[in-house]
Amino acid sequence: MGESIGAIISIAVPCTLIYWVYHTGKVYDDFKANGIETVAAITHIKQLSSSCSGSPKCVFTLAFTTRDGVEITTTLTQVVAVVALMRLERERKVAIYYKKATPQRVWLIIDEDAPQD
Fold first, then answer.
1. How many whole angstroms separate alpha carbon 30 and alpha carbon 21?
2. Is 94 exposed, middle or buried (0-12, 13-18, 19+ CB in 10 A)?
3. CB count in 10 Å sphere of residue 58
4. pLDDT at 5 over 60
5. Domain ranges in the chain?
6. Is pTM beyond 0.85 here?
7. Distance CA 29, CA 35 (A)
8. Which of 33-37, 50-54, 78-82 has the lowest mean pLDDT?
9. Which of 80, 41, 78, 48 is nearest to 62 (CA)?
10. pLDDT digits over 73-84, tens only?
């Protein structure tokens, strides 16, 4: 019985990890292909915890205007690198993707090459 549980766990954990990586990539690709890129103002950052690697998990409150002129304020929880967090705290803006149908759901573009209007 114990060996069966161990075998199930040794199969389930890698499969779950593979699915998670695939799903995250698929969501990112969907935002990039079908989303609208803009720059959001960071109105508040709250650090919740740190990941195993020491990167902080933060809640970002973002404000931006859609192409239709609608003001959106939303929150997003994400783990970010310490260097990126320092830049975001200093600049208080970040490039994002949002979808026209659900502008409250956003994808942060945290990259050194990201456009910062």
1. 14
2. buried
3. 20
4. yes
5. 1-34, 36-117
6. no
7. 9
8. 50-54
9. 41
10. 999 998 888 888
Give every strand in the sheet of 36-50, ordered side by side. 71-79, 56-65, 36-50, 93-98, 106-109
Q: Are 56 and 82 in contact (CB under 8 A)?
A: yes
CATH topology of domain 36-117: OB fold (Dihydrolipoamide Acetyltransferase, E2P) (2.40.50)
117's tokens: 């209007």
How far apart CA 62 and CA 48 sit, in angstroms, is: 17
CB 85 within 8 A of CB 58: yes
How far is CA 35 from each of CA 5, 27, 31, 51, 106, rounded to the nearest angstrom? 43, 11, 5, 28, 9
